[in-house]
Amino acid sequence: MKLFKQAGACLLLSVGLLGQATSAECIAPANPGGGWDFTCRSISKIMHDIGAVDKPIQVTNMAGGGGGLAYGHVVNERGSDEELIIAASSATATRLAQNAYAGMTADQVRFLGAIGADPGVIVVGKDSPFNSLTDLLDAVKADPSSVTFAGGSAAGGFDHLKVLMALGRADFTDIAKVKYIGVDGGADAITQTIGGFTQAMTGDISEVVGFLKSGDVRVLAVLTDERIPGEFNDIPTAKEQGIDVVAVNWRGLYVPKDISDEAYNKWSDALAKVGSSDEWAEAMVANGLAPFNKVGDDFAGYLDGVIAEIQTLSKELGVIK
Predict the structure, then answer these.
(1) Which of 93, 236, 253, 314 is the most buried (most CB within 10 A)?
(2) Could you tell me if 224 and 247 are in contact, meaning their C-beta atoms sit under 8 angstroms apart?
């Protein structure tokens, strides 16, 4: 075993005689514990457990630059490595759309797909006068200064963009007038709304579960194609309310750009098998994820649309030029 250090990332790799990794590898672009680490460890384990791959997949944590260190490592040093997969999420797409990875773009890798998602939600306090998503959006359209949203991402981040996407579907385009406060994480954002400092919170369902169960908040809409199965099945989707928006924090993978089509198909097939497995269904329930199965070309088309929309909104907000 050899220990490599690169830009603060500590990489522990099994190395063969020619210096190449002796097993397949999944890079989690963050420290242990968080969403990208969960994606690598859970998907890699299930891939092997169900026989979708024929050897175990080692996990490497490579934190730095909000995923940018790992992205640059793959693009610049591992561009044809057919034994490499990398965890990704909606944050990856947002940062690529906003040029946060030092000029690197989404077409410098190949995205495999996503097989689960933390559903986006728009939430109000229990005593809020707003009883539906359309009530809330209509209030913003009538007087943008009357509604302030709180979210766990900075201005221009994905929580902010969820609201702007919804408003765009409701034919409101003057997005610079929308009031948004970015705080340090979803818990702080929901506290702002419960305390009456903001009128609504935008985040993910996992961030509000405890507050929802205690009765402190109401979820006006979940931003998914279909309702969340299980205990949250009573929450309507935005689509049901006439607002055709899907905004989820998907959990998925990408691979180096220059691998063969055969290798790409091997990995995408393996990911699809995990997505349809009982083991992954159990992992989603245990971690509050909803089904979100888009693999291969289906996912690539979805991602292109998301990145284009984020770029448009970000330019209007002045986040990028």
Answers:
(1) 253
(2) no
The structure's pTM equals 0.80
The dihedrals phi and psi of 54, each to the nearest 5 degrees, come to: -95, 0
The answer to whether the beta carbons of residues 164 and 202 sit under 8 Å apart is: no
Assess whether the region 2-117+250-317 and the region 119-241 belong to the same CATH fold.
yes
Closest by CA to 247, choosing from 36, 93, 39, 40, is 93
List Cβ neighbours of 91 (8 Å cut-off, separation of 6 or more): 66, 67, 158, 249
Domain boundaries, the chain: 2-117+250-317, 119-241
Q: Distance (Å, rounded) from C-alpha 299 to C-alpha 321?
A: 27
| Domain 119-241 grouped into CATH 3.40.190.10 | yes
How many whole angstroms separate alpha carbon 38 and alpha carbon 36? 5
For the domain bounded by 2-117+250-317, which CATH number is listed? 3.40.190.150
Pairing status of strand 9-13 against strand 2-6: antiparallel
